[in-house]
UniProtKB/TrEMBL annotation:
InterPro entries: CDP-alcohol_PTase-I (IPR050324), HAD-like_sf (IPR036412), HAD-SF_hydro_IIA (IPR006357), HAD-SF_hydro_IIA_CECR5 (IPR006353), HAD_sf (IPR023214). It comes from Parambassis ranga. This is Haloacid dehalogenase-like hydrolase domain-containing 5. Pfam families: Hydrolase_6, Hydrolase_like. GO terms for biological process: glycerophospholipid biosynthetic process. One of its GO terms (cellular component) is mitochondrion. Belongs to the HAD-like hydrolase superfamily. Keywords: Signal.
């Protein structure tokens, strides 16, 4: 009954919305450093209609986070020679916009680039940078001998207590940030105090981008923010004996990032549900793991909605309408692995004797434990052009109806 009503609604709008949406990773899929991967321009052209509009809802999901969405949109528009709007870009920190309970707290931000401005743009009103913290507490940063300060003659105005930490991306001076972040964590946000001997609770830490490695122009992958976090976790554990806890982990492979990206895809689709999301990436541990995990989440969502719908089918019409509204998420998310970035088919990942991928290249955070099934891509193709060919072929019935 509910199903027929839903179909009638979709049929009326079939010429204005699509069944499929596409999520593209950026580094290693479209770009290598500042260079465009040649297949990327061809892939994008194949996805455009005669008016240079995308045939499908498209969102670029990158774990990069040292810039703002409009800058990334401008950069991609320029490099790929197509108009891309900021609403088509998800950076690792973009979902922080939804975490409004932290927006009026005093937050310390770590990373490089305009992180204070980025935090303000995301909605945070009381933002403190690592530079401000170091300037106010000049005795804290003592690792580099040449930069050791002389204590200021006049005392600086005291800072408010830090209530949360946002880790946007890898800093430039790892040693400074490691020292100051530990100071803030072990003093419950008052780094001018001595370390507290007993801390019952840990300051909330929101971390963006867990990538251990990423692919630039160098022949082998480079350290990512995940590598910095690994150092921070290790120092924290060494000093306290406890695991560093994250209040939230953002960026691929987190569910929150995929939920946010799907919201953006749906907006492009006139708020209509998508059937399939294709997620194209070069990193097994972020792009493929994240897409497969989201696919499993979607399946669970639909299973629970179907159960609910069966239960309410005998009920009133208003209950049935509510069940329909919950059906907005896509049916499935298909992962497509490309071989132009971190993943190299000629240099397989470390594996144990049974062939399973070891945790050596996986940065599991909090309750995120490596599940080997989830690093199996649905498809492996040479490059992003082949990925687009594949999805066009699979969505052939839809594309033949396009203007
Ligand atoms: Mg990548």
């Amino acid at each position: 009954m509910w199903c027929r009503g839903f179909m009638q609604q979709t049929v009326r709008h079939v010429s204005t919305f699509r069944q499929a949406g596409v999520l593209f990773d950026v580094d290693g899929v479209l770009l290598r450093g500042r260079s465009v991967i040649p297949a990327a321009r061809r892939a994008v052209r194949k996805l455009l209609d005669i008016n240079n509009n995308f045939l499908f809802p498209v969102v670029f999901v990158t774990n990069a986070g040292s810039c703002q969405r409009h800058h990334k949109a401008q950069q991609l528009s320029h490099l790929l020679d197509v108009q891309i709007s900021p609403d088509q870009v998800v950076l690792s920190h973009s979902p922080l916009q939804m975490m409004k309970s932290f927006h009026n707290k005093c937050v310390l931000v770590s990373g490089q680039g305009p992180v204070t401005t980025i935090a303000n743009t995301l909605g945070f009103q009381k933002v403190l940078s690592m530079e401000q913290l170091a300037q106010h507490h000049p005795l804290l940063d003592m690792v580099e001998h040449n930069r050791r300060p002389t204590p200021p003659s006049s005392s600086l105005q005291s800072l408010p207590q830090i209530q949360a930490i946002i880790l946007f991306g890898e800093p430039i001076r790892w040693e400074t940030n490691l020292q100051l972040l530990i100071d803030v964590l072990l003093t419950n946000g008052r780094p001018d105090h001595a370390y507290a001997t007993e801390l019952s609770t840990q300051l909330p830490v929101l971390a963006c981008n867990m990538d251990l490695l990423w692919m630039a122009e160098a022949p082998s992958p480079r350290f990512g923010h995940g590598m910095f976090l690994l150092c921070l976790e290790s120092v924290y554990k060494k000093l306290t004996g406890r695991e560093l806890q994250y209040e939230a982990v953002l960026g691929k492979p987190s569910l929150l990032t995929y939920q946010y990206a799907e919201q953006l895809l749906r907006l492009q689709n006139h708020n209509h549900k998508l059937t399939t999301i294709y997620a194209v990436g070069d990193n097994l541990m972020t792009d493929i793991y994240g897409a497969n995990r989201y696919n499993r989440y979607l399946a669970q969502q639909h299973a629970s909605v179907v159960t609910t719908t069966k239960l309410v089918a005998k009920g009133t019409e208003s209950q049935v309408t509510m069940a329909e509204d919950e059906l907005v998420s896509a049916d499935q998310c298909q992962s497509i692995l490309v071989c132009t970035g971190v993943y190299n088919p000629r240099s397989p990942l470390p594996s144990d004797q049974s062939g399973a991928i070891t945790e050596a290249v996986f940065h599991g955070q909090g309750n995120l434990v490596l599940e080997p099934d989830l690093v199996e891509p649905c498809h492996v193709v040479e490059d992003v052009e082949a990925a687009v060919d594949l999805l066009l072929q699979r969505e052939g019935a839809v594309t033949s109806d396009l203007p």
